Amino acid sequence: MNKRADFTASLEQSAFWMPFTSNRQFKKAPRLLARAEGMYYWTPEGRQILDACAGLWCVNAGHCRPKIVQAIQRQAAQMDFAPTFQMGHPIAFEFAERLAAIAPERFKRVFFTNSGSESVDSALKIALAYHRARGEPGRFRLIGRERGYHGVNFGGMSVGGLGPNRKLFGPGVAGIDHLRHTHDIARNAFSRGQPAHGAELAEDLERLCTLHDPSTIAAVIVEPVPGSAGVLIPPVKYLERLREICTKHGILLIFDEVITGFGRLGKPFGSQRLGVMPDLFTIAKGMTSGTVPMGAVIVREDIYDAFMKGPDGIELFHGYTYSGHPLACAAGIGALDTYEEEGLLERAASLEKYWENALHALKGERNVIDIRNYGLMGAIELGPRAGAPGSRGYDALVKCFEAGVLIRYTADTLAFSPPLIVEKAQIERIFETVRKVLQALE
Ligand SMILES: Cc1ncc(COP(=O)(O)O)c(C=O)c1O
To answer: E strands within 322-442?
Structure first.
């Protein structure tokens, strides 16, 4: 056996318990990535793979970009770690300022975490503690939405709305309810951009207010555009209405921008593209262009101020050993430098029409029941096989990989979100590959 065959064979007994993966299936027929640059990965045997999903919705600047690599290398040699509990290091303050500078007006305070899941749980805790700081401790309820994905920690799982991610793990956090989701193929199939129908679904929040009493509700959390559940674009005026109802009842609105942040929708943050402002929002992924794990919660000035009015001492008993880790901050500054120098936080806007046309050109291919897009996000929903939902989506992922394109899938929805440096020819290649795969897929 050669070295490569040896390695592949040994994977069947590998110690690595892979996340969100069928371990037995994968280890029998692994798909390995060994190197990356720009828009591409390479397998260990040197096959080039075009990255149509920015790794996992995170490599927004493209792979191994020199400014980011150098920043990480420099920082690792200069100072590997320093605490941010009762101590500080300049680069964490510098990165927070840089983030505040691109955030919407008045969002000037940044709480660092290490992942999207931690950002979500931190945001939920900040929301609860904020009401308590203002003298409304009775606001304990949190509202999520069906088909929402907010990571895998207990808070995020509980407000999340994906059955398979919840059902193994008991009742979750108490005091949580869910809005109905907005996905409606019957009325909105093949919409380009925001679908026309569904603004009235925001009224579901009024239903929950009536049911629970709005004075018990601390916050509503939604993704501006749910990504992991299959790219569900918000109907026209839906988020506006959600915002109005939250404001009317004194409920905080949290946007989970872990995917929509950092240029995915053609502006630095999704709220800026959609024209609807939350009260606080979460980020991760594109924050370091996927290079070093990091996340954050960004809050409006007055929310931070509410914490600063209490007695002297620690204002928020919350944080992580690695909050504001020097390596992650260096990576984040390198990513922001790259985004800003290359106009990447706005680039999706100029490519959006081209992207939309290339994606929607697959209408009519076998099994395609919906296509949707917004910014540089897109999805193709396939009809499920009888008795085997999800298997068609998985097979499409495998076949695309064999044909040299990396995509994502959720059940039978194929999802696309390339690095923001993607060129038109690469967009063509992505969808021509998908077309051929769909034509061959029974
Ligand atoms: C909207 C959203 N929130 C939270 C998360 C969780 O992020 P992480 O996997 O970094 O914990 C994700 C991950 O895909 C996400 O899409």
So the answer is: 368-374, 377-382, 405-406, 408-410, 413-416
Pocket test residue of 20, 59, 118, 120 for ligand 1, highest count of atoms within 8 A of CB? 120
Atom number in ligand 1 closest to CA 57: 14
Residues in the ligand 1 pocket, defined by CB under 6 Å: 115-117, 120, 149-151, 223, 227-228, 256, 258-259, 284
CA dist., res. 127 & res. 112, Å (int):
16
Q: Provide the 10 A C-beta neighbour count for residue 47.
A: 13
Q: So where are the chain's domains?
A: 3-65+344-440, 66-341
CATH 3.40.640.10, applies to 66-341: yes
Read off the pLDDT of residues 408-436 as tens digits, 9 standing for 90 and up.
999 999 999 999 999 999 999 999 999 99
CA dist list (Å): 377 to 80, 348, 373, 395:
35, 9, 6, 21
Q: Which is the closest atom of ligand 1 to the Cα of 118?
A: 11
State which of 285, 377, 417 you would mutate to test the pocket of ligand 1, scoring each by most atoms of that ligand within 8 A of its C-beta.
Answer: 285
Beta strands in 268-363, from DSSP E residues, in sequence order:
280-283, 295-300
| CA within 13 Å, CB half, 160 | 26
Over range 237-266, report the average pLDDT. 98
Instruction: State the fold for domain 3-65+344-440.
Output: Aspartate Aminotransferase, domain 1 (3.90.1150)
Structure token digits, residue 290: 């996927």
| Chain position carrying tokens 């262009």 | 289
- Model's pTM, two decimal places? 0.97
Distance CA 166, CA 146 (A): 12
User: Measured in angstroms, how far is the CA atom of residue 139 from the centroid of ligand 1?
Assistant: 25
